[in-house]
C-alpha cells in the first residue's frame, strides 16, 4: 500500500475460536481504498470466518478489526451502526428475503435504516438494478430468478446502501459455471469503478484478473500475502504452490 | 360447608377412572370409524370420497358440545332416555372418527406413490396392497399424531359433564358445590387431567422425533 | 316410533339466535386476536429468548395444552373470583379463550419462526436492520405464511370451542340454545339449528381467514406457490 494512505480495512492479530478450535490464529492485513482483495485457501483455512469477523457476524477473541477508522463494535453499539453504513456483505446463499419482491428487497433497508422516502428508495433500487443488469426484474420475486440473478440482486441490495467496502463470501460457490460468469462480471465492473472489495473465492481466474492483493490463508493464518501477480509468479511456500496446483 | 379433604381427592381420582373409560371408548370407536373414513377419503370412488369429506367438514365445523347435546336429545327421541355414557360415547366417537380419519388419510397419502406401483407390479390386488404394503407403512407414520390426538380425546371427555355424566370435571363441580373452594378444586382437577395428558404429549413428541431421526 | 320435527319456535326466537351468534363472534374475534398476539410474543421468546424465559413459556404451553378448556374456564371464572378477583362471565370467557389460544398459537408460530433460517437474520443484520425491524419485516411474515393453514384451523377450532363458555352462563350461541330449548322443549331441533349456525360460522371464519391471508401474503397472492 502506498505510504501515507490510511487503510480502509485494518485487521490486526485477530484470534477467533469456536470452543477449543482456533479458527483464526493471529490474522492481520490492510486493505487500501479502491483495492480488490482476494482471500483464497482450502476449506477450513478460516477464510470465510475472517470475512464474517470483518462483517461483525462473529465476535473475535483477540486482536482488532477497524473499518474506515471505526472498530467493529458490539451489536447495538454506535460503532456497529457505523460498520453497517460502511460495509456491505454478500453471502454464498444470496439470502434474499423470499417474501419480498426484488424492489422491496432493495428498498427495505433504505426506508427502515436510512429513513429514505419511498420514492427516493425506489429510484435507488432502479439505479442499482441497472448496474447489475436486471432492470426488468424489479417486480419479480426471488423464487422466479435464477441463482445468478438472485446473487446479482443481493449485490444490488448491498450497493443501494452505498457502502465504502463490499465483502463477498464465496458468492459463486452455489452457482453453475455460466451463472458464475454473470456474477463475476458484475463484480469486475464494481472493481473497475473503484469499489473497495474483499472477496473470499475459489475462482482463481477471477482472483488473477481482478484482485490487486492476494491473501492465502492456511491453518488459520495468513500464510502468504502480496500483489496477486507476484504471488502467482513466484509462490514462496510449498502450501501455496500446492494449493494453486490443485485449483487449476 | 365442608372442608376440602383427602376424601374429596379420592372422589376425584375415582371419577378420573370414568374419564379414562370414556376416553378409551371414544378412542376405540373413533379408530374404527376413523379408519373407515380415511379409507373412503383415499378411495377411487368419488362418491365415497365425497361422503367422507362431507362428514369431516360437518363434524369439524360443529362444536363437540353441540354434538353431545344432539346425541343426548337424539337418543331421547328414539326412546333411549337419559343415558349420558352412551350419548357421550357416541358423540366422542363421531368426533374422534372425523379427526382421526383426517389424520390417517394424511398418513396413507404419505406412503410414497412408488410403493403402490411396486406392489401393483407384483400383482397384488387393491385389498392386498392395503393390507400388506400401504397400511403397515402408514401405521408407522400415524403413531405419533395419533398419540397426540389422544390428548384431545382425554380433554374433551370433560364435556360429558355437561349432560350429567360423572367423570373428572363433573366430580370437580360436585365437590365444589359442597366445599366452595373452586380455585383449589379445579386446580386439582386440572392437575389430574395434566397427569393423564402430559405423558401422552411427551410420548407423541418422542415418537415423532424418533420417526424423523429414522428417516 | 314417530317423532315430528317442529321448528315453529324459530319464528319467534330467531333474534335470540342472532344475538347469541353475534356474541360468539365478538368473543372469539377478540380472543383470536389477543391470543395470536400473545402466542406470537411467546413464540419469539421461545425461539430467541434466554433459558429462563424459554422454560416459562414452555411450562405455560404444556399446562394449557394438557388440560381441558372447560376447567381453564372454571378456574378463571370461579377460581379467581373465590380469590377475590371478581370478573364477569364475558371477561372470564375472553381471558380463558385468549390464554388457551395463546398456547396453541405459540406452538404453531414457533414452528414458523424456526423455519426462518439464521442466514436471513444475518442478511438483515448486515443491512443494518435492528432486531425489532428484523423480526417485524424478515421473520414474522414468512413465519406466519408458512404456518397459516394450521393457524386458521386453530382459529376455527377456538370459535367452536367457545361454545364451552356457555357453562359459565356467557350468553353466546350455545347458551342461547339451552335457554330456548328449556322454554320450548324442542331440544333436538334447537341444537340442530345451532349446529347449522356453527357450520355457517365455521365457513364464514374460514373465508375470512382466507381473505386476510390474501391481504397479508402478497407474494403468495401473485405467484400462488408455497414459501
Task: Provide the fold topology.
The complex is a heterotrimer of chains A (248), B (215) and C (227).
Chain A: E1 9-18, E2 21-31, E3 36-40, H1 47-54, E4 62-67, E5 70-71, H2 78-86, E6 87-90, H3 102-112, H4 118-131, H5 147-159, E7 165-169, H6 177-192, E8 196-200, H7 204-210, E9 213-218, E10 221-227, H8 228-233, H9 238-247
Parallel strand pairs in A: 3-8, 3-9, 6-7, 7-8
Antiparallel strand pairs in A: 1-2, 1-4, 4-5, 9-10
Chain B: H1 6-41, H2 46-60, H3 64-77, H4 84-110, H5 113-121, H6 126-156, H7 168-179, H8 182-214
Chain C: H1 9-48, H2 51-65, H3 69-82, H4 89-114, H5 118-126, H6 131-161, H7 173-184, H8 187-216, H9 218-223
Can you walk me through this structure?
With 248 residues, chain A is an alpha/beta fold. Helices cover 38% and strands 25% of the residues of chain A. In chain A, the strands form two sheets. Chain A has a six-stranded mixed sheet, sandwiched between helices. A four-stranded antiparallel sheet of chain A has the order 2-1-4-5, covered by helices on one side. The two termini of chain A are 28 Å apart. Chain B has one domain: MetI-like fold, CATH 1.10.3720.10. The termini of chain B are far apart. The model of chain C has no long low-confidence stretch (mean pLDDT 95). Chains A and C meet through helix 2, strand 6 and helix 3 of A and helix 5, helix 6 and helix 9 of C.
Amino acid at each position: 500500500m502506498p505510504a501515507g494512505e490510511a487503510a480502509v480495512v485494518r485487521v490486526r492479530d485477530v484470534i477467533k475460536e469456536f470452543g477449543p478450535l482456533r479458527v483464526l490464529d493471529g490474522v492481520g492485513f490492510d486493505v487500501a481504498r479502491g483495492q480488490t482483495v482476494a482471500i483464497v485457501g482450502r476449506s477450513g483455512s478460516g477464510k470465510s470466518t475472517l470475512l464474517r469477523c470483518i462483517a461483525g457476524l462473529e465476535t473475535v477473541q483477540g486482536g482488532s478489526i477497524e473499518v474506515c477508522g471505526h472498530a467493529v463494535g458490539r451489536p447495538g453499539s454506535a460503532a456497529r451502526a457505523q460498520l453497517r453504513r460502511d460495509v456491505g456483505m454478500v453471502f454464498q446463499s444470496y439470502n434474499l428475503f423470499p417474501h419480498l419482491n426484488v424492489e422491496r428487497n432493495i428498498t427495505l433497508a433504505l426506508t427502515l435504516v436510512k429513513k429514505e422516502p419511498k420514492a427516493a428508495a425506489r429510484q435507488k433500487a432502479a439505479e442499482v438494478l441497472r448496474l447489475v443488469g436486471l432492470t426488468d426484474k424489479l417486480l419479480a420475486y426471488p423464487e422466479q430468478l435464477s441463482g445468478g440473478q438472485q446473487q446479482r440482486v443481493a449485490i444490488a441490495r448491498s450497493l443501494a446502501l452505498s457502502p465504502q467496502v463490499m465483502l463477498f463470501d464465496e458468492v459463486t460457490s452455489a452457482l453453475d459455471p455460466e451463472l458464475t460468469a454473470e456474477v463475476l462480471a458484475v463484480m469486475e465492473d464494481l472493481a473497475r469503478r473503484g469499489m473497495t472489495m474483499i472477496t473470499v473465492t475459489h475462482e482463481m481466474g477471477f482472483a488473477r484478473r481482478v484482485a490487486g492483493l492476494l491473501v492465502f490463508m492456511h491453518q488459520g493464518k495468513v500464510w502468504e500475502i502480496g500483489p496477486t501477480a507476484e504471488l502467482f509468479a513466484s509462490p514462496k511456500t510449498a502450501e501455496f504452490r500446492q494449493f494453486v496446483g490443485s485449483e487449476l | 360447608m365442608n372442608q376440602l379433604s383427602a376424601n374429596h381427592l379420592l372422589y376425584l381420582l375415582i371419577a378420573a377412572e370414568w374419564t379414562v373409560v370414556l376416553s378409551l371408548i371414544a378412542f376405540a370407536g373413533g379408530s374404527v370409524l376413523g379408519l373407515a373414513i380415511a379409507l373412503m377419503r383415499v378411495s377411487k370412488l368419488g362418491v365415497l370420497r365425497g361422503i367422507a369429506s362431507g362428514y369431516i367438514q360437518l363434524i369439524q365445523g360443529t362444536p363437540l358440545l353441540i354434538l353431545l347435546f344432539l346425541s343426548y336429545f337424539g337418543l331421547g327421541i328414539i326412546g333411549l332416555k337419559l343415558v349420558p355414557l352412551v350419548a357421550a360415547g357416541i358423540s366422542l366417537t363421531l368426533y374422534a372418527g372425523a379427526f382421526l380419519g383426517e389424520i390417517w388419510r394424511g398418513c396413507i397419502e404419505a406412503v410414497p406413490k412408488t410403493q403402490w406401483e411396486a406392489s401393483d407390479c407384483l400383482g397384488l390386488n387393491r385389498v392386498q396392497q392395503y393390507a400388506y404394503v400401504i397400511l403397515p407403512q402408514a401405521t408407522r407414520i400415524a403413531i405419533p399424531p395419533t398419540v397426540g390426538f389422544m390428548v384431545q380425546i382425554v380433554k374433551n371427555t370433560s364435556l360429558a359433564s355437561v349432560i350429567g355424566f360423572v367423570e373428572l370435571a363433573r366430580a370437580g363441580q360436585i365437590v365444589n358445590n359442597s366445599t366452595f373452594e373452586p380455585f383449589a378444586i379445579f386446580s386439582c382437577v386440572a392437575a389430574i387431567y395434566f397427569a393423564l395428558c402430559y405423558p401422552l404429549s411427551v410420548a407423541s413428541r418422542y415418537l415423532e422425533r424418533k420417526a424423523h431421526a429414522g428417516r | 316410533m314417530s317423532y315430528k320435527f317442529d321448528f315453529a319456535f324459530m319464528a319467534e326466537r330467531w333474534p335470540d339466535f342472532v344475538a347469541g351468534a353475534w356474541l360468539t363472534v365478538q368473543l372469539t374475534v377478540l380472543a383470536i386476536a389477543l391470543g395470536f398476539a400473545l402466542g406470537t410474543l411467546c413464540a419469539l421468546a421461545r425461539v430467541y429468548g434466554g433459558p429462563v424465559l424459554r422454560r416459562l413459556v414452555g411450562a405455560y404451553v404444556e399446562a394449557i395444552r394438557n388440560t381441558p378448556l372447560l376447567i381453564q374456564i372454571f378456574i378463571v371464572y370461579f377460581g379467581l373470583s373465590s380469590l377475590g378477583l371478581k370478573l364477569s362471565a364475558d371477561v372470564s370467557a375472553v381471558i380463558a379463550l385468549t390464554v388457551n389460544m395463546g398456547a396453541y398459537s405459540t406452538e404453531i408460530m414457533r414452528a414458523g419462526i424456526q423455519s426462518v433460517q439464521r442466514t436471513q437474520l444475518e442478511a438483515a443484520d448486515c443491512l443494518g436492520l435492528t432486531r425489532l425491524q428484523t423480526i417485524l419485516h424478515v421473520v414474522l411474515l414468512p413465519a406466519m405464511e408458512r404456518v397459516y393453514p394450521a393457524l386458521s384451523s386453530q382459529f376455527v377450532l377456538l370459535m367452536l370451542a367457545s361454545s364451552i363458555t356457555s357453562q359459565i352462563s356467557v350468553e353466546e350461541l350455545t347458551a342461547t340454545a339451552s335457554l330456548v330449548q328449556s322454554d320450548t322443549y324442542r331440544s333436538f331441533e334447537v341444537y340442530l339449528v345451532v349446529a347449522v349456525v356453527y357450520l355457517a360460522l365455521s365457513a364464514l371464519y374460514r373465508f375470512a381467514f382466507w381473505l386476510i391471508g390474501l391481504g397479508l401474503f402478497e407474494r403468495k397472492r401473485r405467484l400462488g406457490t408455497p414459501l
